Amino acid sequence: MADQSISEARTPAAPEPREGAAAPTDREGISRRRLLGTAGATGLVLGAAGGAVGYAAAPAEATPLSSVGEGRAMFHGKHQPGITEGLPARGHLIAFDLAPGAGRKEAAALLRRWSDTARRLMAGEPSADGDTGVAQDAGPSSLTLTFGFGHSFFARTGLEKQRPAALDPLPDFSSDHLDKARSDGDLWVQIGAHDALVAFHALRAVQKDAGSAARVRWQMNGFNRSPGTTTRPMTARNLMGQIDGTRNPKSSESDFDQRIFVPANGAPAWMANGSYVVVRRIRMLLDDWEKLAVKEQEAVVGRRKSDGAPLSGGTETSEMDLEKTDSAGNLVVPINAHARITRPDQNGGAAMLRRPLSYHDGIDPDGVPDAGLLFVCWQADPLRGFVPVQRKLDRGDALTPFLRHEASGLYAVPGGAAENEYVGQRLLEG
């Protein structure tokens, strides 16, 4: 969980500029709505297991609260937004199935509508048709919208020959307790923002745009720590209280693109510069977890709870010494510790970029919290990223008894849309 399975980025974190995108401080083209939202700021702001992890780039200083609404991600670019940006404070995941009788033509029109709406909302502008006004006095708040295709989409649209082999259904895992109604789907949309109203506004716009072409299959809501809530950039904690996200791949690494994105000359051609995302709803059995003493929790994870440092010593980012023993000759990092099992060097270099959300969906009738992680991980090929790591976790991860995988999905997320292009156009019109 601390190394490879639950969280992703340091918080607060300024998004790194995407190729071909303006830097967040670029004031050109600022909408009237964005200016009004900034001018009206008072300084008050609303606020996995089973994959590979690390940390994302963080600014030298914490982002001032008054600037949160000004943050802007670019819709057009080499990659879709919502992949390499830092963790959003609020997020929504939603899957759709095409309506009976809808096919390739209707899907193309829908992706065109969604792309236009995403471009407008990410710029801090109202949607084109019947904007609800929910976020009219807010800035863009680093809003991102990301779109992907599920395995079933290709048969529904007559595009089976264009379906990537990497999109084959995930294998069954022993820890799965999957609800099929909350898994998979023809189309998948990810929404993230640093303001809850801005994120909800985008969710409502996406649902309205679907019209008669598609219907909601499932929808999930999540959150992360809000920017500006810590005195310095810090790795986020998950709902188990564990610092989580120390070893996420970094965009500064020479092989980052190779591990996370489909190459420009890869197959199929329409997936160039795209990525594959695995989405898992992972319930944390918090009542059981919180019965453990801190030392016992640390042994399960393999890291100190206070600062995220490996049990072998050092600081959060210190290399873990897997061979170190105590005075009795026992391994300091237990053989089944989550951090040991999920290390890339223990999994043939398997790596994923994780950008998850915590969730809390209320209290069950028996008083048990329905809470945990909306695990979202990105990779160039899930058969070399998520699958081998999850299989290894299945065989003996000490964290597994405290988790339940309740929903799952795998989606092909094409590269970013060029100017005057909509997401998926190269597939749907190719």
Automatic annotation (TrEMBL):
Short name of one Pfam family: Dyp_perox_N
Domain Dyp-type peroxidase N-terminal residue range list: 80-224
InterPro entries recorded: Dimeric_a/b-barrel, Dyp_perox_C, Dyp_perox_N, Dyp_peroxidase, EfeB/EfeN, TAT_signal
Cofactor: heme b
Subcellular location as annotated: Cell envelope
Keywords: Heme, Iron, Lyase, Membrane, Metal-binding, Oxidoreductase, Peroxidase, Signal, Transmembrane, Transmembrane helix
Catalyzed chemical reaction(s): heme b + 2 H(+) = protoporphyrin IX + Fe(2+)
EC number(s) recorded for this UniProt protein: 1.11.1.-
Disordered: annotated span: 1-32, 303-322
Cofactor detail note: Binds 1 heme b (iron(II)-protoporphyrin IX) group non-covalently per subunit.
Annotated transmembrane regions: 35-58
Domain Dyp-type peroxidase C-terminal: 235-417
Family: Belongs to the DyP-type peroxidase family.
Known role: Involved in the recovery of exogenous heme iron. Extracts iron from heme while preserving the protoporphyrin ring intact.
Annotated protein name in UniProt: Deferrochelatase
Taxonomic lineage from the root: Bacteria, Bacillati, Actinomycetota, Actinomycetes, Kitasatosporales
